[in-house]
């Protein structure tokens, strides 16, 4: 019933907008151009257009939201960011060399190519995309005000906002990291662990939490051996997860040890330099893969605490929804998902966000 409601509503909206008729639904969309323009904000032009939907961030979540919003004739405006969070437009997926688990692509496709295809489809569906970074937002009144970096004088006005800014994987910044990123170094075992370059090889996981244990266990399905580097004599992981890795014959835990460098050939990672923090002994170990499991940083700083976040900075969305603590603001993708963090799940929530924004505008 809900799916049918959404589809019918999108169809009605499209028909009304393109026949230039003037029933209530068309009048509502027209009225968004003057919503709350009689306030005292000196930065607002009373004749300034109010966007129906503004999408902040790109990646699978943002582009899927744009595709659905565009097909619903909501004329979405996307700010895909310019090296926002230190990552190119398109998000974390642009740093992945090969993707084998995205439906519809039986042959491996690079993350960059996949994002280029999503972006092209998004534009063809009617989304306007600007390669600019959003510095801050004001969600305290309607219309919402969105401030573009280096263009703070006049904010973008929006009736609804979809946040798809993602989360950036924590890195260690060791020598060789940049050179071998996606050539032997990754921050997602589930995404990359099954790739041919890692199969039947010695792989190393840095981390001591539940995620590190889960990723090490996952990698044993493909690796000849998995080594976990833990900087102390204790792990933060739950007892159950600790027992799982300790009892796995393919996993070795090296305690009191930190990573100091990544080494290899021009094309691939071959060795890691590690140091024992107790006796300061430095040694090299052979490794063809290195996986960081030291957490992610959700890209929510620009919100300045205006939305309800969890203790680690992720946006809290309502159950089975992308609705946030403020009506008319929706969150999708990794910015609100610290569990799955997959391209396909991000795309699914992007679809949800667009449908919920459409329903919000229609009411």
UniProtKB/TrEMBL annotation:
Keywords carried by this UniProt record: FAD, Flavoprotein, Oxidoreductase, Redox-active center
Catalytic class of the enzyme: oxidoreductase
Position of the signal peptide: none
Pfam families membership: Pyr_redox_2
EC number: 1.8.1.9
Residues covered by the FAD/NAD(P)-binding domain: 52-350
Cofactor list: FAD
GO cellular component terms, A-Z: cytoplasm
Lineage: superkingdom: Eukaryota
Reaction(s) the record says it catalyses: [thioredoxin]-dithiol + NADP(+) = [thioredoxin]-disulfide + NADPH + H(+)
Oxidoreductase in keyword set: yes
A biological process from GO: removal of superoxide radicals
InterPro entries linked: FAD/NAD-bd_sf (IPR036188), FAD/NAD-binding_dom (IPR023753), Ferredoxin-NADP_redctase_2 (IPR050097), Thioredox_Rdtase (IPR005982)
GO molecular function, one term: thioredoxin-disulfide reductase (NADPH) activity
Subunit structure: Homodimer.
PANTHER family: THIOREDOXIN REDUCTASE 1-RELATED-RELATED
Family note: Belongs to the class-II pyridine nucleotide-disulfide oxidoreductase family.
Protein name per the record: Thioredoxin reductase
Organism: Tieghemostelium lacteum (Slime mold)
């Amino acid at each position: 019933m809900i799916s049918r409601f959404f589809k019918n509503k999108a169809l009605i909206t499209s028909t009304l907008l393109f026949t230039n008729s003037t029933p209530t639904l068309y009048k509502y969309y027209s009225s968004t151009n003057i919503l709350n323009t009689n306030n005292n904000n000196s930065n607002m032009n009373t004749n300034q257009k109010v966007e129906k939907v503004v999408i902040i961030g790109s990646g699978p979540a943002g582009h899927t939201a744009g595709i659905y919003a565009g097909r619903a004739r909501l004329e979405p405006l996307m700010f895909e960011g310019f090296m926002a969070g230190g990552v190119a437009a398109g998000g974390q997926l642009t740093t992945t060399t090969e993707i084998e688990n995205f439906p519809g692509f039986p042959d491996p496709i690079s993350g960059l190519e996949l994002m280029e295809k999503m972006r092209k489809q998004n534009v063809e569906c009617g989304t306007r995309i600007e390669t600019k970074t959003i510095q801050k937002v004001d969600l305290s009144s309607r219309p919402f005000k969105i401030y573009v970096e280096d263009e703070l004088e006049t904010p973008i006005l929006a009736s609804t906002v979809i946040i798809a800014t993602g989360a950036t994987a924590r890195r260690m910044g060791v020598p060789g990291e940049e050179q071998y990123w996606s050539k032997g170094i990754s921050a997602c075992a589930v995404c990359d662990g099954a790739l041919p370059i890692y199969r039947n090889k010695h792989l190393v996981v840095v981390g001591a939490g539940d995620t590190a244990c889960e990723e090490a266990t996952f990698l044993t399905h493909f690796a000849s051996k998995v080594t976990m580097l833990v900087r102390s004599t204790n792990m933060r992981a739950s007892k159950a997860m600790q027992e799982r890795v300790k009892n796995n014959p393919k996993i070795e835990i090296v305690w009191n040890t930190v990573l100091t460098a990544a080494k290899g050939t021009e094309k691939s990672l071959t060795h890691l330099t590690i140091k024992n923090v107790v006796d300061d002994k430095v040694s090299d170990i052979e490794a063809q893969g290195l996986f960081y499991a030291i957490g992610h940083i959700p890209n929510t700083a620009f919100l300045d605490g205006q939305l309800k976040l969890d203790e680690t900075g992720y946006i809290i969305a309502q159950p089975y929804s992308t609705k946030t603590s403020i009506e008319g603001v929706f969150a999708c993708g990794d910015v609100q998902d610290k569990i799955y963090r997959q391209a396909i799940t991000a795309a699914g929530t992007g679809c949800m966000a667009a449908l919920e924004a459409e329903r919000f505008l229609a009411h």
